[in-house]
Every structure is written in C-alpha cells, then in structure tokens.
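sry for the spam today, last one i promise. struct tokens for design, 161 residues
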C-alpha cells in the first residue's frame, strides 16, 4: 500500500539507492510512476506493506516501510531489489554499488568511487566538513538526522583528518 513517505513512523525501515548520475526530469517522472505502482502492490506473505518513497537531489531513491504494520520479509526485500535492478537496466544507471560515495560540492552532488574519495581526502580535496550522504542509515529517524552530514560525523570519518 503506497503512502506518503513523510507520514511513515520514525522507526520505519529505509533503503537508499544512489545513482551514479543525475536523473533527467522525464526519468524522475517515469521512476516515480514505477515506484508508485511497485509500492502499491508490494506485499510480504500476502499482506500489503505500508510503504512510501522519495526521490532526492535527482540522484537518490529512498524507500521506506512501516515495520509496525508488517515487516518486509526476505521475499519482499528480494522483490524490491529486483525492482531496483530493473530500474538500473531501464535507465542505464548504477543504483546498487555501495562502494561509491556521494557528497556535496557547492550546490552540486558529486559521485566518486570509494578509492577516488579516499585519494581526495588524502590530497585534502575534501575535508571533515564536507557534507556526505550516509546511505547506511536504517530507519527514518536516522535518515532525518544522519543521512546528510559532515564527513566527520559519518563512516566517512575514517578517511578525513
């Protein structure tokens, strides 16, 4: 059952998928339509999942599920992964690689392989104050508080001194 992401409880589980490029406005419209259809029909063991989504900065797809009504099961999580993999094929984009880093560079969202991010940190091209996206957050409360943070407040801190 599709619900407005902003109405989901703070303890709702989230999954964040970052794209290796920005989506066009047309792609965002299409992706939002596909997300709506998928989430409207998403179930766990035959029960509707109360789920919502956000598309942020033309790069991030965030899916949230209210675990208070029904938990996402292994099969339902697999279905969401297959859905995301289909988006990757449809739009020739990488959404599943967790070894890449997105960060703010002025008003722009930059995307780098972790190896390049580490080198940039070593070369002082980024600092502990660089705003990074911590895609490892697991629920909406963490998403609101710890998703978009200075590198010093994220797992990225190990690379910046």
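last one done:
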């Amino acid at each position: 059952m599709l619900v407005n992401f902003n109405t989901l409880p703070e303890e709702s589980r989230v999954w964040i998928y970052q794209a290796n490029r920005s989506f066009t406005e047309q792609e965002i419209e299409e992706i939002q339509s596909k997300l709506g259809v998928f989430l409207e029909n998403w179930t766990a063991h035959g029960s509707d999942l109360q789920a919502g989504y956000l598309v942020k900065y033309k790069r991030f797809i965030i899916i949230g599920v209210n675990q208070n009504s029904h938990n996402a099961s292994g099969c339902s999580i697999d279905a969401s992964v297959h859905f995301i993999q289909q988006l990757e094929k449809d739009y020739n984009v990488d959404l599943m690689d967790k070894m890449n880093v997105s960060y703010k560079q002025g008003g722009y969202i930059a995307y780098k392989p972790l190896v390049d991010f580490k080198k940039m940190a070593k070369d002082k091209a980024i600092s502990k104050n660089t705003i990074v996206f911590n895609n490892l957050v697991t629920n909406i409360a963490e998403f609101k508080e710890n998703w978009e943070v200075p590198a010093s407040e994220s797992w990225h801190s190990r690379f910046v001194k």
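Strands lie at 13-18, 43-44, 47-48, 51-56, 60-65, 100-105, 108-113, 131-133, 148-150. ok im logging off now
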